[in-house]
Amino acid sequence: MPQPRISVIIPAHNEAQAIGLVLAEIPAGLVQEVIVVDNNSTDATGPAARAGGATVLREPRPGYGYACLAGMAYAFGKPRAEQPDIVVFLDGDHSDYPEQMPELLAPLLREQAELVIGSRALGERERGALLPQQRFGNWLAARLLRLRYGGNVTDLGPFRAILAPALLSLRMADKTYGWTVEMQVKAARQGLRTVEVPVRYRRRIGTSKVSGTVRGTIGAGYKILWTIFRYW
Q1: Is position 105 within any domain?
Q2: How far is CA 74 from each of CA 36, 56, 58, 82, 92, rounded to the nearest angstrom?
Q3: The pTM is what?
Q4: What is the pLDDT of residue 210?
């Protein structure tokens, strides 16, 4: 594959303390644009991201999917020559390791895959980085995906890379917690070549908006399972 244009989309809700570190750890010269979607933050996430060199969008509707869709609309709303060939999704809480981005991109660049998932289950995890409810939820969702579609799914990790034509073909629609599993379900249904690569994972900066609350945990779990069975 010729040198591709790569865009990174980072949904971020109240990540002012973390977003600068995330941006600083993206390998220099690797990507053309980093898009931080300020998802209804009430802190200085937007200014901090802008200071770190990112393009900052404001999405007032709360929801992980809303933020990802806003980033996609911006990236693919440009003239065709300026649109990305590959899109990387990355969380803004400093739990992922952006320096591992070349490892996610490698299968795409070798034309061995259309979608690459960074698997926290296969990689090294800092103690306490994944709470018990997260580990169980990922295990259950991955098991259901394997049962329905086969393959060796181990995680719904947010750190992922996908070819732009494949991403557009999925017609992503989820607005909240079901975004990551919707992508994997639709990719399986379409027969996209999907591979996992091990990634490291550490404790996030600040409190999780999902696993850090009972309401968020239940809401995310319900939406993930609902999304899997919706396309069953």
Answers
A1: yes
A2: 11, 10, 11, 11, 18
A3: 0.91
A4: 59
What's the pLDDT score for residue 214? Answer: 52
Query: SS3 for 230?
Result: helix
Tokens in use for 18?
Answer: 């973390």
- pLDDT < 50 stretches in the chain: 211-212
Helices (H) and strands (E) in the chain, counts: 8, 7
Query: What distance in Å separates the CA atoms of residue 8 and residue 35, rounded to the nearest whole number?
Result: 6
CA distances from 16 to 48, 70, 109, 206 (A): 6, 19, 33, 10
Instruction: State residue 191's pLDDT score.
Output: 94
Distance from the first to the final alpha carbon of the chain = 34
Q: Give the pLDDT confidence score for residue 8 in this predicted structure.
A: 98
Question: 219 is in which domain, residue-wise?
Answer: 6-230
Residue 129's alpha-carbon distances to 78, 121, 199, 200, 215, in angstroms, are: 37, 12, 13, 10, 19
pLDDT score at 216 = 58
Q: What proportions of the chain, in percent to the nearest 5, are helix, strand and coil?
A: 40, 15, 45
DSSP calls for 20-45: HHHHHTSPTTS-SEEEEEEES-SSSH
Domain of residue 20, CATH code: 3.90.550.10
What pLDDT is stored for residue 211 in this prediction?
45
Rg (CA), the chain: 16
- Give CA separation, 149 vs 38, 124, 192, in Å: 34, 26, 12
- Is position 1 within any domain? no
